Amino acid sequence: MVDKLNLAGRKALVTGGARSIGANIAAALTAAGASVVIGDILDDLGRETAANLAAPGIKTGFVHLDVADDAQWANAIPSVIQQIGGFDILINNAGIEVTALVADIDAASLRRMLDVNVLGTALGMKHAFLAMRPGGPAGVGGAVVNISSVAATIAFPAIAGYSASKSAVDRMTRVAAVEAGKLGYGIRVNCIFPGLIANEMGIKLAEDIVAFGLAPDVATAVAGVIGQTPMGRLAEMPEVADAAVFLCSDAAKFVTGIGLPVDGGMGT
To answer: Considering its fold, how many domains does the chain have in total?
Structure first.
């Protein structure tokens, strides 16, 4: 039986891939047979993560990439193609979260979050389309997976700006999928809604919830999230990574324009 999740011969760029969810996705892609370049602003950690993923028949590399900088994207894509011999998967994972009550929103912080989460995702799709579509420097089509969040589907205190940014990722995903299909690019575009994860970003959110007086302690804040989750626990990074592999694979070859929840039912 053909393994439709096998990504042998595929060539991927994972933004924000130096650590956390991005590093888990990069590891899952290489485990499935894809070659991977990590794009990140954390140069030393990114190079280390890429080196640790290298294996026989699997090429890995690193490129410095601030996703909010159009010029850096224009320089990064040729580097990806040169390092691993092609480009047909983009994981738009890089993102930041700035927690704030609506009454306390800081304009500069919100702009930075929108730059990374919204503009960064849009620029990634732009340059993936230019490279992957017929006549582009890669030119064989491919798959784009954007990382949104369960925050795009629920109302949760202190993350209005973050929720807005991740809702934008969802909407842009669907429009991009329609464009890519109708214009014959041969590129599928989907996004994932991860639930809350006990990584650095997730723990910081819980700490902020306590600081804002919305919970007495971190344990209670986390328990509140778990209480809203039908499966009764937090999400885990490898589960998000497995969803990304699926969306990039031939098992999802007729899947485009969707948001896939990996949230234990929290957003239901």
So the answer is: 1
